[in-house]
Amino acid sequence: MPMKIDLPTTVAVVALLAMTTTTFPAAAQQISSPDPKAVKAGTYQIEPYHTQVSFSLSHFGFTNFSGFLSGASGTLKLDPMAVSASKLDVSIPVSSILTTAQPLDDQLKQGQWFDVAKYPNATFTSTKVTPAGKDGATITGNLTLHGVTKPVTLKTHLVGSGTDPLSKSFNVGFEAVGTIKRGDFGIKQYLPLVGDDVTLKIAGAFVLQQ
């Protein structure tokens, strides 16, 4: 028996879908602004649910394998009129490490890799912030990982700022990239077969404290 199609209902559904796909991007643009002048000065706290660190390194030269760290905490002191005076302090639990394979996640937490039982957190404290272009900055700081502290440089740019429509708090978000050598931090398992250079890409979300 052929299925009966309700033409008015079908038209209404198609129209609703069209409105949805065209309205959401416009609404997102209204919520946040990429203009640095829209950023409010003050002390921000990391919003952990939308802050993540992705890392990528060569696996035997066959693939650039990636994973994530999450659950960050910390503060950002920011004044868009005096970017060089900004201060960033971040801590992230290494036990949050996540790849596409649970056995690998478990292995990476063990002593021959990150040894999370002995070194549970990675931390970063900025020592210098240098403005770069209209919406960027170069952040130099000390990264402590696996019990070793080394200077690291991150290149960052503003993604957007504005009032979160759900929490009504003022948020600002940045993207940062950088590269470290894991061997410098004493994580030398399978070097040089598994790459020494680790590329970091960071999505940082921050909430203004009242």
Automatic annotation (TrEMBL):
Q: Does the keyword Signal apply?
A: yes
Q: Tell me the first and last residues of the signal peptide.
A: 1-28
Entries under InterPro entries matching the protein: Lipid/polyisoprenoid-bd_YceI, TTHA0802/YceI-like_sf
User: Which UniProt key words apply to this protein?
Assistant: Signal
Ranges for domain Lipid/polyisoprenoid-binding YceI-like: 43-207
Answer yes or no on keyword Signal.
yes
Q: Where are the transmembrane segments?
A: none
Check the record and name the PANTHER family matching this protein: PROTEIN YCEI (PTHR34406:SF1)
Designated name of the protein: Polyisoprenoid-binding protein YceI
Q: Which organism is it from?
A: Rhizobium miluonense
